[in-house]
Amino acid sequence: MTHPVPHRPYYKVGTDLFDWDGKSYIVVTDYFSNFPEVGMLQSTSSKTVISYLKTVFARHGVPCELFSDNGPQFSSGEFAVFAKEWGFKHTTPSPTYPKSNGLAESSVKTVKNLLKKSQTNDSFQKSLLIYRSTPLQNGLSPAQMLMGRRIRSNLPVCEDLLTPKGASRIRKSKEGQKEKQAPGDNGHIRSTGTWQQTGQVQEEVAPRSYRVQVDSGLLLRRNRIDLQLQQSQRDTVAQEAGQQDTAGSAEPAGSGPDRADHGLTKVQASPPAAGLSRPKRHVQPPKRLIETC
Predict the structure, then answer these.
(1) What single string gives the DSSP state of each residue in 137-187?
(2) Where do Polar residues bias regions lie (predicted)?
(3) How confident is the model at residue 293 (pLDDT cuts 50, 70, 90)?
């Protein structure tokens, strides 16, 4: 039976069970990347197999089609309910021709060879890691085809090869979300449940941990959650300069509606009129949550 080549990872997977050294195992292999998932089962019942498949699907996503043999754990009514609830098509071969599940059978053969050469479970996991990171005939490893990146093993590899595209943008975004304090920031410090002490930040000794000098001259180390700090003079000057630049480039009043720049709306400041309520802030959903095809 010839299976069509999927157009993306985890569109179609094959699974099979096998026994080794008195223990039962299950293999789940992606038809696009040949990436194998291997797990040891306490039993071969439908409930145990379904529980392991749910773990795999939660990690890589639910496939559109799952191909297996006609074993009792796959042909049960419980497995049919599982396929319907999770939204994938369950396909089986002819009862007299199990070779049609060739990819899963080939994965079982590969895993058995790894188990045969491994003395302990730790060495087997290392062998499985190396197999997943070894390039195939197309020059890409199963991990690259499935995850879009190389995975690190105990073999030497250049660090640049392990860095996927877009990593720098993600790093900058995460660093921008972290609120850091600079030396010279002043404010209140929580001590013994109160905020009576005041002091100044001297240095950052660890992530979100700062050395602060209180007014009495004592040096304390506090987490960011125990600090209510004000802006330093450096930040105040930068903020005032930014406001002046914004005011100088803004349009005169009455020239037209406010313009949006890079998704942000410029609002001209005006003194509140007596008897008028404060205008409500317009809330827009984040663009990162809007899916487009």
Answers:
(1) TTS--HHHHHHSS----SS---HHHH--TTHHHHHHHHHHHS----TT-EE
(2) 189-201, 231-247
(3) low
pLDDT tens-digit series, residues 123-178: 899 999 999 999 998 999 999 999 999 998 888 888 888 888 888 888 787 776 66
Output the average pLDDT for the chain. 80
Number of structural domains the chain divides into: 2
Domain boundary among 196, 229, 262: 229
Residue 132 and residue 60 share a domain = yes
Tokens of 83: 């396929």
| Residues 213, 187 contacting (CB under 8 angstroms) | no
- The pLDDT assigned to 215 comes to 83
Regarding whether 154 and 205 lie in a shared domain, the answer is: no
User: How many Å apart are CA 186 and CA 230, to the nearest integer?
Assistant: 5
Distance from the first to the final alpha carbon of the chain: 33
- The residue range of the domain holding 214 is 182-229
CATH number at residue 191: 2.30.30
Q: How far apart are CA 187 and CA 151, in angstroms?
A: 45
